[in-house]
Amino acid sequence: MSVNKELIVVLDFGAQYTQLIARRIRECQVYCEILPYDVPLDTLLAKAPIGIVFSGGPASVYEPGAPHVDKRLYDLGLPILGICYGMQTMARDLGGVVTGATRKEFGKTRLEVVLKNDLFAGLNPELVCWMSHGDTVESPPPGFEVLAVTDNCPVAAMALPGKRFYAVQFHPEVVHTPWGTEIIRNFALNVCKASGSWTMESFIESQVRSIREQVGDKRVVCGLSGGIDSCTVAALVHKAIGEQLTCIFVNHGMLRKIEADQVRDKFARAFNINLIYVDAEERFLARLAGVTDPERKRMIIGEEFVRVFEEQAEALRGADFLAQGTLYPDVIESGTKSAAKIKTHHNVGGLPEDMHFKLLEPMKYLFKDEVRKVAEELGLPSDMVWRQPFPGPGLAIRITGEVTRERLEILRNADWIVIDEIKRAGLYRKVWQSFAVLTPGTSSVGVMGDQRTYAYPIVLRAVASEDAMTAEWARLPYEVLERISNRIVNEVPGVNRVVYDITSKPPATIEWE
Ligand code: XMP
Predict the structure, then answer these.
(1) Do the domain assignments include residue 354?
(2) Within this chain, do residues 12 and 145 fall inside the same structural domain, yes or no?
(3) Nearest by Cα to 416 from 492, 509, 474, 479
(4) Do residue 141 and residue 205 come from a single domain?
């Protein structure tokens, strides 16, 4: 089965929920991609979608410069579902009337389905929906029927069933619309007639075929960071072209315990993947000697990575393609994000820009949890699949101040205990990240046996988060905290105290640097 068979396209008008629409459609086992609202018709048709969704968006349909689709879209014979702004733009295009912000609605709202129809099939006529709109469709376009209303919204859902055009003012994609996924499923399966048979297995099969077609007999290089994304892309490309793939893994010496071995033995060797393993610990540490500024540390690590890769030019020169673990959120967010710089993030799998590769990004339409499914399907070890996120610059940004071999050793041992205890308590997948931080600028007095000690503290950090943009400090059980503290103080020489960081993000960040 091909990935693009039974594709539903979401045309994006700039809503914050657009990605959620795609997710919901995929949850109905129908493949879905997001394209800009002004995608050329030819490009859209080349994808042969079986249905189209118009997303919401921040604009008002009559304002100058408001985004609108190419009207020929309505003549393609394809089903369309408009959501919020998507409904308003459909109403305007087809001769309905949209009015301004006099009837604003925001939040959970009671919805009454007033006409039996395919979109709400199988659902209770009284539903709860999530509204977030200023403009409202006052009267639907000629021929359209009103399907549902709310107290404030005379046209909360409308349809032209003969042409399979449907539209809703509320947001079925958000969890606050409890039956929203069923509404989307009704559109995908009942209206678009999708079979709902898209699976990760079929995704892998079609990607393997497509990678073979693209690459032919050429060579591919892939930078491995040890994280789930780069390992999964390597496994996928390897499944497609085997020996033609070479991976490069740079051990910068700031990895956690056993991490490098895991990549080398449990992954590359087990999968029989060509691996260039670069032990670069010495040179990274040499360059970091005496450096205490966090941003400077990040810069040095990023730069040194590029150098190491450049030195692997032999392997790189022979390759035509660069495989990367780009994910869907990266694709969508690039170019639209204008956030203030808090930290320079380094994706250490990155390669020098002037190396002129063709890019191979077979996962660029997947979300993180979907990558995990692909990884499991490909047989990656489960501790890799479910590994908590780990920053590119590694332990270097978990040691405040200078990074030295001695400090790394202390932190690595403490970190190992944290992870071990969190796993034993069954919390590893429940928290977003859990790790140790070393603050060598501070020492404190303790007593062990009858001896005075004067040693470093370890900071324990554990957070709950959905996406790392915000995070709550994790309410770990006292017993777990106690075990971690006892073990670190007893088992890690150089540490005599453990403190727990109880700051959320914001105002703190997850990492300490
Ligand atoms: P902060 O500390 O900014 O971290 O709240 C948010 C998430 O990003 C991870 N992180 C990084 N990941 N390269 C990465 O690949 C980096 O330079 C980097 N810095 C932070 C961090 O672990 C958390 O999950």
Answers:
(1) yes
(2) yes
(3) 492
(4) no
What would the pLDDT profile of 58-101 be if each residue is shown by its tens digit? Answer: 999 999 999 999 999 999 999 999 999 999 999 999 999 999 86
Catalytic residue among 171, 238, 252, 346: 171
3-state secondary structure 183-240: HHHHHHHHHCCCCCCCCHHHHHHHHHHHHHHHHCCCCEEEEECCCHHHHHHHHHHHHH
- Residue nearest atom 21 in ligand 1 by C-alpha distance: 391
- 509 Cβ below 6 A of ligand 1: yes
- What pLDDT is recorded for position 409? 97
Checking DSSP bridges between strand 51-54 and strand 7-12, what pairing results, if any? parallel
| Full residue range of the structural domain in which residue 427 is found | 399-500
Which of 158, 191, 224 lies at the terminal end of a domain, its last residue?
A: 191
Instruction: Kindly state whether residues 179 and 37 are assigned to the same domain.
Output: yes
Whether residue 221 sits in one domain with residue 77: no
For residue 1, tell me if it sits in a domain. no
Mutating to test ligand 1, I would choose from 472, 511, 512, 513 the residue with most ligand atoms within 8 A of its C-beta, which is 511
**Is residue 290 domain-shared with residue 433, that is, in the same domain?**
no
Cα(393) to centroid of ligand 1, in Å?
9
Mutate to test the pocket of ligand 1, among 303, 326, 345, 432 (most ligand atoms within 8 A of CB): 345
Distances (CA, A) of 419 to 431, 478, 480: 11, 16, 11
CATH number of the domain encompassing residue 187: 3.40.50.880
Is the minimum distance from the CB of 32 to ligand 1 under 6 angstroms? Answer: no
Question: Residue with the nearest Cα to atom 7 of ligand 1?
Answer: 468
Closest residue to atom 17 of ligand 1, CA basis:
345
Q: Quick one: 28 and 172 in the same domain?
A: yes
Q: CA-CA distance, 481 to 498, in Å (whole number)? A: 9
Please give the share of the chain, as a percent, with pLDDT higher than 90: 77
Q: Which of 16-20, 237-241, 341-345, 433-437 has the lowest mean pLDDT?
A: 341-345
Do 462 and 429 meet the contact criterion of CB atoms below 8 Å apart?
no
Amino acid residing at 174: V
- Please give the tally of structural domains in the chain: 3
What is the rounded average pLDDT for all residues in the chain? 92
What is residue 1's predicted lDDT score, i.e. its pLDDT? 37
